[in-house]
């Protein structure tokens, strides 16, 4: 029991208060330290990449072909290939994912089927990417007969990112209060009218943020495209979705492990480029979220 | 006046209605009818089943899987559950919930939403509807200079009046108000009450209220719900002058319990 020592010291700190305060400061320090430890590797990686790979990055590097057996030159076909693959993957996964999320959030009744679907989505999100890769080979390359191609690779990427799109979209939809929906329904609006006028306009920012994050995740994936459509080296650009393509992630793997005589700076440069794409995407999504959050709607 | 055989057909007619949530019966109504152009007040303590009744009338029970409705509710002579199109049913019934809901649209769009959904496109017609409904809800003077600002950022009382304006924008046959004055200051409440008395010429109103005196001021007939039963139903004047079948009604009106 602490002693407040009469009415005069009602607001004075007791010994125990002081002790608690010290303890609190200590805990705070420990947690701060752990957090800093966590971001340390990120900065180390960035520092190394920038110092080693930075000098090689230039517009020319982005827009020229690899040369001398991939030991010199730029990354143009790989960069373009990554853009193709990610864009094509989005074309499949976003409409499908948003539609599925709309169904789950706005239409589905809370029954065993819905719960089963939700369980499947969560598990799908946890499947390792190499398993997705093998699925892609079996389903798109062989069964559907797309061969190793942009089409097969981007479909594989799409399947892999679908659960993430669904979950993030559904969360954005759920963030719109139910009272808004009920007010709209009570006026005789159909479910679709309510989605169209009330739910979507107020969740589109969250959906977009999720999609951008998905892009950044997809851009770095290697395993799912390695066996389904990404090529070791191609001296020309793909002509159709049935062609193979180079990709940044696989290119990095190839020049760091498979090709002899590559100067050190080259893989560092490619890695830096890849990380920059991811960072730019993530910052864009954070910026977008901040802009839209500042416009408070309710 | 109590509905006599010669009066026009009722707007709402209830027979052997039973509303349940799971196993628990929330409301059991043997017979009740609301006649055209009256204000029908429903009073009763918390949990007496009044909100459940309103939800059953415009079929909001469809959104609550635990809610189970048996028996018949007829709106304009047709059972609400056989109404060919539940959306057209809801469009003819305006509802105002206890908690104000300004939709995250502009003030203008809040009120124009229902007319737009039912196909009104002409700008001038929409302008007319918006102004008329906002005036009736006693909100026009406060928002006429900021019709484009967000309805969801108005004050609570303003949002409640916006909700009333929205209910009127559907041009309903029946307006159901559930404790509309909870978030509204007394002066504005009086103004809305005056509007309701006028609106009675054009439509029928069901007024659920916790304020016994509000029912007394407005309602032509009043029903007293208690514990999921309709204990009393009759002309407001009669009920408030003590002509009751069940003395619990008088006890409640006089604030002896509840
Ligand atoms: N969604 C629900 N799920 C389960 N039970 C419910 C639900 N809504 C209402 N009930 C129950 O039904 C009964 C009647 O509730 P209702 O909301 O119709 O009462 P009310 O007269 O409107 O009361 P209040 O003055 O509190 O609004 C209550 O016992 C309540 O607990
Ligand atoms: Mg209620």
Ordered list of secondary-structure elements with their pairings:
The complex is a heterodimer of chains A (298) and B (258).
Chain A: H1 15-53, H2 59-63, E1 66-67, E2 72-73, H3 76-107, H4 112-125, H5 129-143, H6 150-174, H7 178-186, H8 191-199, H9 204-220, H10 223-226, H11 248-257, H12 265-294
Antiparallel strand pairs in A: 1-2
Helix pairs in contact in A: 1-12, 3-6, 3-9, 3-11, 4-6, 5-6, 6-9, 7-8, 9-12, 11-12
Chain B: E1 12-21, E2 24-34, E3 39-43, H1 50-57, E4 67-75, E5 78-79, H2 86-91, E6 93-96, H3 107-117, H4 123-136, H5 140-143, H6 156-169, E7 174-178, H7 186-199, E8 204-208, H8 212-218, E9 221-226, E10 229-235, H9 236-240, H10 247-253
The structure holds adenosine-5'-triphosphate (ATP) and magnesium ion.
Task: Please describe what this structure looks like.
- The complex is a heterodimer of chains A (298) and B (258).
- With 298 residues, chain A is mainly alpha-helical.
- A two-stranded antiparallel ribbon of chain A has the order 1-2.
- Chain A contains 12 helices and 2 strands.
- Chain A is globular, with a radius of gyration of 26 Å.
- Chain A folds into 2 domains: 20-56; 59-294, MetI-like fold, CATH 1.10.3720.
- Chain B has 2 domains: 8-92 and 172-258, 3-Layer(aba) Sandwich (Rossmann fold), CATH 3.40.50.300; 105-171, no CATH class.
- Chain B has helices spanning 50-57, 86-91, 107-117, 123-136, 140-143, 156-169, 186-199, 212-218, 236-240, 247-253, and strands spanning 12-21, 24-34, 39-43, 67-75, 78-79, 93-96, 174-178, 204-208, 221-226, 229-235.
- In chain B, helix 7 (186-199) links the parallel strand 7 and strand 8.
- The radius of gyration of chain B is 18 Å and the shape is globular.
- Residues 50-51, 178 of chain B line the site of magnesium ion (MG).
